[in-house]
Design a protein that fits this description.
- By secondary structure, the chain is an alpha/beta fold.
- It is built from seven helices and seven strands.
- The strands form two sheets. A five-stranded parallel beta sheet has the order 4-3-2-5-6. It has a two-stranded parallel sheet with strand order 1-7.
């Protein structure tokens, strides 16, 4: 079993809530599937203890996948899901030319936007279950971004943060 991420909810600069990026699967797990692994994460976002950052391209991807037949049995309310996205995500401009050269390159080009945003805005965590993004954990950590599954992260009230396996 992977140890759960121990979180410090105060940013290293002090005061401001840490920035996070959620990939599309994590947003679906939270807003469509009510995945128990997203409870802590969603609660912290709703309370303003984490600031979820996204781009228009991420919202567009969510809007594109919601009507797929694979989700029919869950009958997602597209308007509710997108309204929740709009309410809770802070939209950022796409990090086009401002991308640092050291941003890890994702095997899946559709997922590159998540690691690009996380690294360019100084996100503390990128939450995903996607293997292509999880494979970037070590190189992203060098840039200050922890890439992990939502269920591997938990706030325990301590002042220390550790990555899975550390």
């Amino acid at each position: 079993m992977i140890p759960r991420q121990v979180a410090q909810l105060q940013s290293p600069s002090g005061g401001a809530a840490p920035k996070v990026v959620l990939d599309t699967n994590t947003v679906l797990d939270w807003l469509v599937f009510d995945d128990p692994g997203c409870i802590e994460l969603s609660w912290r976002i709703l309370k303003g203890q984490l600031v979820w950052h996204a781009t228009q391209a991420m919202r567009d991807e969510l809007a594109h996948v919601l009507p797929r037949s694979a989700f029919a049995r869950w009958q997602p309310d597209m308007a509710r899901v997108l309204a929740s996205f709009d309410q809770h995500a802070r939209l950022a401009a796409p990090p086009e030319e401002a991308i640092p050269v050291q941003v890890p390159s994702c095997k899946d080009p559709d997922d590159q936007k998540f690691i690009d945003l996380a690294c360019t805005i100084g996100a503390r965590w990128l939450f995903t279950r996607d293997r292509a993004l999880l494979d970037l954990a070590r190189s992203a950590r060098r840039m200050g971004v922890e890439v992990l599954k939502p269920g591997d992260w938990a706030f325990d009230g301590s002042e220390e943060s550790s990555a899975p396996g550390q």
